[in-house]
Amino acid sequence: MKKIVEKHPFAIRWFHWVNFPILTIMIWSGLLIYWANDLYHISVGSVTLFHFFPEWFYQSLNLEQRLAEGMAFHFVFMWVFFINGFLYVLYTWISGEWRYLIPNKHSFKEAWLVLLHDLHLSKTIPPQMKYNGAQKIAYSAIIIMGLGSVLTGLAIYKPIQFQTLCNLLGGYQSARLIHFMLTIGYCLFFLIHIAQVIRAGWRNFRSMVTGFDILTSKKK
Amino acid sequence: MGNTKKQNLSPIDRKIRWRNWLSLTGFTLFIFAAIFFWLKLKNQPLDNDIAGGVQIPLRKVLNANEKVFSKTFSKQNLAKAYPKSAAAKVVRLNGALGLMTDLDDKNWRLNVVRAKGDTLKLTLADLQKLPKTQVIFNFKCIEGWSQISDWAGVRFSDFIKAYHLDKLTDKKYIGLVTPDGEYYVGIDMDSAMQPQTILCYEMNGKPLPLNQGYPLRLIIPVKYGIKSLKRIGVLSFSEERPPDYWFERGYDYYAGL
Q1: Which end of chain B has fewer CB atoms at under 10 Å, N or C?
Q2: TM spans, by residue (chain A) (predicted)?
Q3: Contact A68 B55 (CB under 8 A)
Q4: What is the mean pLDDT of residues A141-167?
Q5: Average pLDDT in the B228-236 region?
């Protein structure tokens, strides 16, 4: 017997798939802007371990000498990014979907079990609801990061008009650094997300497009 | 039932097939629409053919952004003031646009165009007679760096009052041009009249160096550095946007902070 089980409401799928290209545009145009003053790096003492970004990176993605273009795209698509994110939060809040998303006191322990399982360190399969503990934490964190990007973004976009905000974030250069680190965070999220989607398989991916899952019970 | 001919499908299979088809078609259309939209946007004509510029739809949004943020702009919002000790001794320099020709020091005047054929010509000494205002703030370059620096000169709004130019501030913009005409900016009146905007002739308590715009430059903390034009030749007032060098090269006209 097959049974259709509703999994992802249309609105959630819509916000998710709109966000993907928009965030890509925001990161790309952000890199065009960052290139003009690319002073961030990871160092131990006076040894630079990694410079954001190496020359080959800029060249291979053609990111050089395009500050004006980057700013133009960034300050146009920021609206779409913001509105889409805002509607997503509004929807999850009103529809009650947030219940599946907000981590509770068990989520952190569960996330640990998920991690052990995914790294093949433990054979126990953690309980799988719509989202497991690790997913709840990740998907809630990404929303907070989105809010963080909006706030730090506003602080560097209009640092004098939004002075209080800018000061709360530690000042202009500090806000710029946080804005950058959040972007690196999205990229890391993306890598893990893709790896997990591939692991979870086609059926799971399909449900993010179609919205439903098919349950086959053994009963004839 | 080994054969799964279409008519033999169970209602649930039919429903699954229908919903799969609907979603996957919708998803494919969505991807194509997104790519189509992107390519279409990238290939829109630029708003300024000579200098480069930016795709017209993007420019429209940037102009709308200006409307939003100039509405919320308040002259009361001052750039944070710093103590003199915080100001950089070595002031970062960016750009020599408009400074390439030799300065005719003796004959330099600030040309204030009050009306067509009515130009006020002022010497540096004239401006130095007016009250001096010091502004120590975090100078922000559009490239993303910032530096606390120390500037002094006559407050733009004081200068307006002293030379009875109040009527002209009813217009929407001021325009500044270097003596050689190579660099030019336009600034909205609210930002120009903000109390930290100065016609600047001192840096770190000394006359401006040549490469920082001697004898007179603009310092406008509520804008990116691109608007703080060095070596002012002509100041004018207008209802329309005066030409702006970086605007023509695709940057936001407003560039407000």
Answers
A1: N
A2: 12-36, 71-91, 137-157, 177-198
A3: no
A4: 95
A5: 97
Contact A68 B58 (CB under 8 A): no
CB contact under 8 A, B20 and A71: no
Q: What is the average pLDDT across B217-232?
A: 97
How many interface pairs between A and B have CB atoms less than 8 angstroms apart?
A: 91
A52 in any annotated domain: no
B46-249: CATH superfamily:
Oxidoreductase, molybdopterin-binding domain (3.90.420.10)
DSSP B196: T
H or E stretch at B148? strand B146-155
- Cβ of B143 within 8 Å of Cβ of A2? The answer is no
| Number of domains chain A is built from | 1
Residue ranges per domain, chain B?
6-42, 46-249
- Is the CB of residue A121 less than 8 Å from the CB of residue A114? no
Q: Are strands A41-44 and B198-203 parallel, antiparallel or unpaired?
A: unpaired
In a domain, A47, yes or no: no
Quick one: closest CA in A to B34, which residue?
A21
B99/B216 Cα distance (integer angstroms): 12
Q: Which of A208-212, B159-163, B168-172 has the lowest mean pLDDT?
A: A208-212
Mutate to test the interface with A, among B58, B67, B227, B245 (most CBs of A within 10 A): B58
Which among B16, B38, B140 is the nearest to A4, CB-wise?
A: B16
Contacts of B257 in chain A (CB under 8 A): 158-161
Burial class (CB in 10 A: 0-12, 13-18, 19+), B69: middle
Residue A220 pLDDT more than 80?
A: no
Domain limits for position A132: 2-32+77-216
- B-chain CB neighbours of A159 within 8 Å are 140, 257
Flag whether A66 is in a domain. no
The interface pTM score, or ipTM, of the predicted complex is 0.91
